[in-house]
Write a structure and sequence with these properties.
heterodimer, A: mainly alpha, two-stranded antiparallel sheet, 13 helices, 2 strands, B: mainly alpha, 12 helices, globular
């Protein structure tokens, strides 16, 4: 319990800090932070799967579904409440994941990666050809309200930023608990040795099924937040390169700690923004090189820098 | 009846192109257990090498027919160089890692090579239509099709046959199959596995570049073609069963024909169909058509 309390107060402090920064920082910075928080939600889902030894190359599917749910709810159904549309995004992602998960929970390793990728490409293929939803261009999101209050376009960015911070805080606290719960640890047991988990009387497929749905719900929330922040959705959100980015961030963060994901997501956005600014034709090269360096030198992700030091220093 | 014939011809042309793209990928996976995402870059490098060569060759007024040898040679050379660099420079350091980690490594290589091609060839589109136009068109049973497409089918069948012969009927192929079957035992039997790996990877890369080079005359070569192609190739290879050449051929035909049917009947579902077929096959046979299930180990 002491451990949770310490981490939770750390999360709370980070939350307050983020709010303060949001009030003072320029618009582009709070936008960048919003996007990285939203993507961090998706990546936490990916990390949940990674802890069970599964790499999903198709989280873009739920990211995109979340974004489009928010867009469709506002655009076609005239539901504009920010909390409501985010909830819809999560529910839609959860339902789709519950259907696909029935099949996917039997797959492992490369086949899991390939099949998830196929499903997200199917959504991409459908969206690209659906003229009513703007085809390859996507469409703009209606402005949202919060319990009947409509922030103007100038304030909307900041409100969405606060919303993202709040979502991040809730997810961080809950997922940190989840990682240290029996189900959370069961994931690692599955990664280490699935058959032994079966001998313990636990069904690996069922656990993976639940983790897959959880990851999808998180990705849906992330996609919804991104849609609210950027005011636009397009099929690119389901393309495999988007999912590749999420895997990249998950690798950067490692699976050791929830906080690492947020740091990694923020770092990733910074690297990408600056690389894109400095070298518009070479930014992918910078990303690729970073990826290789991480795999070579930090195979357990960013968080291992802290744990290595702790082990070396003999504090614990 | 006419549509049916068009669908068949289109499907076969597309299938043979798909097989060319996927052959190298499945070979590399079969021997090295690396699902090589950078294969898409090899395709792009081949396409760019061929296109820039064709542009230069035809502006210099040489004998046009000889270009067929040279532009293919150019693409192959590009693939061999890139393959060697990637294998010796990066992959060599990572052997023995998890299969999924290897995908991520090749993903990093893909990102890097994407920009290397932009650095070398710029971001403008390249056109190399001359070899395509040179062969003209034939009219058979009321349908016109480009002779270049027939040529593509011919190359694809030849590559497939050579691969089958090389793997099943030669000494080196036997050694390669031994490595596929059990890496450690073949090492103990005196097979130079490191050399086998280098040769396989270079061969796979050259095949990817060949596919790119052969496609260059049929479309414009622009940045990003490698990224588009690689998941198509994944779909084909996974349907057939990773590492199986026969599987890649069957996967290519399945995807090619279903795409042709979709394009000529419901063009809206073109992209959907390819991955739909993949999802369908995987849901019935989780490891693809040509791979038998393995026992689980404790």
């Amino acid at each position: 319990m002491e451990y949770f309390r310490r981490t939770n107060s750390f999360f709370a402090a980070a939350f307050v800090l983020l709010l303060a920064v949001g009030l003072m920082a320029p618009n582009w910075f709070s936008y960048l932070t919003t996007i990285s928080l939203a993507k961090a939600l998706v990546v936490i889902g990916l990390v949940i799967l990674l802890r069970a030894g599964l790499v999903s190359f198709g989280q873009g599917l739920y990211y995109c579904l979340g974004g489009y749910s928010v867009g469709i709810a506002g655009h076609y159904l005239q539901w504009t409440d920010g909390f409501l549309v985010l909830l819809i995004a999560m529910v839609v992602s959860g339902i789709v994941a519950a259907i696909l998960g029935l099949l996917l929970c039997r797959y492992r390793e490369i086949f899991f990666a390939m099949l998830t990728m196929a499903f997200s490409m199917i959504l991409y293929g459908i969206l690209v050809k659906s003229v009513g939803l703007g085809s390859t261009d996507g469409f703009n999101i209606h402005s949202v309200s919060f319990f009947g209050w409509e922030p103007g376009t100038d304030k909307l960015g900041l409100i969405v930023y606060f919303l993202a911070c709040l979502a991040a805080l809730i997810v961080a606290v809950l997922m940190h608990r989840y990682f240290h719960s029996p189900v959370g640890f069961a994931g690692e047991a599955i990664r280490e040795n699935e058959i032994r988990v079966e001998y313990l009387g636990v069904s690996p497929n069922r656990i993976i099924f639940s983790k897959y749905i959880l990851a999808a719900v998180l990705a849906g929330a992330g996609g919804g937040l991104t849609a609210l922040a950027s005011g636009h959705v397009d099929p690119e959100m389901a393309y495999w390169t988007t999912s590749g980015e999420f895997v990249f961030v998950a690798l950067l963060s490692g699976t050791a700690h929830v906080a690492a994901v947020f740091i990694a997501a923020f770092l990733f956005e910074i690297i990408r923004t600056y690389a894109f600014d400095l070298a518009p034709y070479n930014w992918q090269m910078i990303l690729g090189a970073t990826l290789l360096l991480i795999i070579f030198f930090l195979p357990k992700g960013l968080w291992s820098i802290f744990t290595i030091r702790r082990a070396g220093g003999g504090v614990k | 009846m006419d549509t049916l014939l068009v669908i068949l011809v289109d499907g076969i042309v597309y299938s043979s192109w798909l097989f060319l793209v996927a052959a190298g990928l499945t070979l590399v996976y079969g021997v090295m257990k690396i699902l090589n995402m950078a294969h898409g870059s090899m395709y792009a490098i081949g396409a760019y090498s061929a296109a820039s060569f064709v542009g230069w060759y035809f502006s210099a007024d040489y004998v046009p027919w000889a270009s067929y040898f040279f532009f293919i040679g150019c693409a192959l050379a590009g693939g061999v160089i890139a393959g060697l660099l990637v294998e010796r420079g990066v992959l060599r350091l990572m052997y023995g890692s998890d299969e999924v980690v290897m995908i991520l490594v090749t993903y990093g290589v893909l990102l890097i090579l994407e920009d290397v091609t932009k650095l070398i060839w710029g971001v403008d589109a390249y056109f190399a239509y001359q070899p395509y136009g040179l062969l003209g068109r034939t009219k058979v049973m009321g349908i016109t099709f480009a002779n270049y497409d027939l040529y593509l089918i011919g190359v694809s069948v030849t590559v497939g046959a050579l691969m089958w012969y090389g793997l099943n009927r030669t000494r080196n192929g036997k050694m390669l199959r031994a490595v596929i079957h059990d890496r450690e035992i073949s090492m103990a039997m005196g097979i130079n596995v490191t050399r086998t790996f280098i040769i396989t990877f270079v061969l796979g890369s050259a095949l990817g570049a060949l596919a790119g080079g052969l496609t260059a005359p049929a479309l414009s070569v622009v940045p990003g073609i490698g990224i588009e192609i690689i998941i198509l190739a994944f779909a084909v290879v996974v349907i057939g069963g990773l590492g199986s050449v026969e599987g890649a051929a069957v996967g290519a035909i399945l995807v090619g024909i279903s795409r042709a049917i979709a394009v000529h009947t419901f063009p809206e579902i073109e992209l959907f169909v390819i991955y739909g077929v993949m999802a369908l096959v995987l849901s019935v046979r989780p490891r693809g058509l040509f791979v038998t299930a393995t026992a689980r180990k404790i």
